[in-house]
Structures are given as structure tokens and as C-alpha cells.
Amino acid sequence: MKTATDGLVMVGSAGAGFATGRGVNAMYPEKKQTSGLAKIATFALAVAVVASVKGDDMASKAIKGFAGGFGGEKLLSGVSDLMEDNAMLSPKADDDEATKFAQRALGMPTYVGTEPPREPAEVKRLVFPALNQAHQEEIIQMQEVAQNAYEPKLKFV
Known about the structure:
elongated; mainly alpha; two-stranded antiparallel sheet
């Protein structure tokens, strides 16, 4: 019973840490390169917290889980911010095959011949109308209106 409880505490606190990490993203600088480096530094601080917490009691596990979840989110969003301005993310007609392969593998737009960049392929879904009444036929395109704030791009027909 103690092992299951410890596991739940660790997973629950990691989830809370991840959610808190996502929530504080607006406090980081607007410039993506600066923001990415700051988030990775925060990840390093979270790793130091996890390493410095001694003990095997429930509070220690909760602190380790929270710091681990928070740090994990900071690492993911920091790398994402740093990659946003990367040259590989901007498809060009003269990209070599290895770059095109990496772009396709990551689901990014790519150049095909002389055509403009292609958007990633739409995900095909199995449709069971009896089970899925709220089926959506199109992917809703979103636009960033402020840092970490998005609104749908509405099309009027």
C-alpha cells in the first residue's frame, strides 16, 4: 500500500508541477531566444532541487515530483522556444534531402520541387458516427494573439 501511495504522490505532484510550469510561461521574456535560455536555466535549477532533496518520506517525494514535472515542462517549452527561430524550421527550395527528411519526420512544412511549403499531412481518423456525434471535419487553425494566448482563425463562408 505504501508503494502505491508513494507512486500516486509522485505522479500527482509531477502533474501539478507540469501544470504550474505551463502556467508561469507568461512570466518569461517575450523574445523566444531569451525565453528559451531562461526556461532551460529553470530546468537546471529544478534538477538541482530534485538532487538536493534528501529523504524518502511522502513530503520529499511530493517535492521531487513537483520539481521534476515543473522542470520537465520548462525543458520542453525552452527547447521549443529555441527551435522556433532555427533555420531548419524555415523550409527553402534548396534544402538537402537530410533536412527535408528531418522536417517531414517532425511534421513540419517542406518544399516539394518549386511548390511553396506544404503543411503537414492531415491526420486521418476513423469515424464512428454513433459513438462520435461531435465529429469535426476540419482542423481549427489557431493564431497567437499574445504570448501563450491563442484564438481560432475564423473563416466565413
